[in-house]
Amino acid sequence: MSEQQNLDVVRKGYDAFGRGDIPGLLSLLDPQVSWVTPGPADLPTAGIRRGHQAVQEFFQAVSSLGDILRFEPKDFIAQGERVVVLGEETMRVKATDKSVEYRWAHVFTLRNGKVEAFEEYGDVGAVVAEIRSAQARV
Fold first, then answer.
1. Per residue in 95-104, pLDDT tens?
2. Residue 55 to residues 8, 42, 95: CA-CA distances in angstroms?
3. Number of separate domains in the chain
4. What pTM was computed for the model?
5. Average pLDDT in the 73-95 region?
6. Long-range contacts of 104-113 (CB under 8 A, 24+ apart)
7. Which of 49, 122, 132, 138 is close enough to 54 for a disulfide, judged by CB 3.0 to 4.6 Å?
8. pLDDT digits (tens, 9 = 90+) for 60-82
9. What is the domain range of residue 111?
10. Are 64 and 95 in contact (CB under 8 A)?
């Protein structure tokens, strides 16, 4: 696949996510996709997942954690089988009703037109602090 084709697949994934179309997003992933997100063990979205079911569970964890008020992929960079996307988001943490800003980098590895691996990089400290403050009040 060309770099442009890989970019197109990744953009389709963000478009599906923006519409709330998780099945559409999953259709762009290899059935054995590796999905890695940052954070400590007490952050429900953190960890290593494999396969469509586990990725669907990740999106359920995101939804239960908070409401995404703003999600902006800004820069798309392709080189060979990798696409890197830099972006920002604002999430309202449901447990505290506070909004946090988050900058991230997403790294996709594609093979045969499917996302084989995804890894997110970012400082999730503000989200973790909100979760822990809510737990401390219980």
1. 899 999 999 9
2. 20, 18, 23
3. 1
4. 0.93
5. 96
6. 106/73, 107/82, 107/83, 108/6, 108/10, 108/82, 108/83, 108/84, 109/81, 109/82, 110/1, 110/6, 110/9, 110/10, 110/81, 110/82, 110/83, 111/1, 111/30, 111/81, 112/1, 113/1, 113/5, 113/9
7. 49
8. 999 999 999 999 999 999 999 99
9. 3-137
10. no
For 89-118, letters b (16+ CB in 10 Å) and e give bebebebbebebebebebebbbeeebbebb
DSSP E strand boundaries for 1-138: 29-37, 47-50, 66-79, 82-93, 98-111, 114-122
Q: What is the DSSP letter of 38?
A: -
